[in-house]
Design brief:
With about 120 residues, the protein is mainly beta. The strands form two sheets. Strands 2, 4, 5, 6, 9, 10 and 11 form a seven-stranded mixed sheet that branches. It has a four-stranded antiparallel sheet with strand order 1-3-8-7, with no helix packed on it. It is globular.
Length: about 120
């Protein structure tokens, strides 16, 4: 069974950092583009970032550009999202998702597999 599991969420003060990890079981992530999404209460789901299968192409939403970094760890079969200078408006449930596509990534693609999400709360 193909599964994605997010970890690393929690409570952090404004200006702090968190690293989210997306781990796969049942398949290897190196043939998949991976997207990170978030959904805050009362808001629509937002595409935050994505990374292509090779890791050469990445995307960041304007709201996180310069603060978040997505990268692959193929040895661990994970894709991580390093989040720095966190703001209260980053508070949301964060999800990772995978789609089997080569060379590109877009958060608008039809992702095939989704994790259950991890809560990130930025508050003093």
């Amino acid at each position: 069974q193909l599964q994605l599991v997010e970890s690393g969420g929690g409570l952090v003060q404004p200006g702090g950092s968190l690293r989210l990890s997306c781990a796969a079981s049942g398949f290897t992530l190196d043939k998949y583009a991976i997207g990170w999404f978030r959904q805050a209460p009362g808001k629509e789901r937002e595409g935050v970032s994505c990374i292509s299968d090779s890791g050469e192409n990445t995307y960041y939403a304007d709201s996180v550009k310069g603060r978040f970094t997505v990268f692959r760890n193929n040895a661990k079969n994970t894709v991580d999202l390093q989040m720095n200078i966190l703001k209260p408006e980053d508070t949301a449930i964060y999800y990772c998702a995978a789609v089997e596509v080569r060379y590109v990534c877009y958060t608008s693609m039809r992702y095939e597999y989704w994790g259950q999400g991890t809560q990130v709360t930025v508050s003093s």
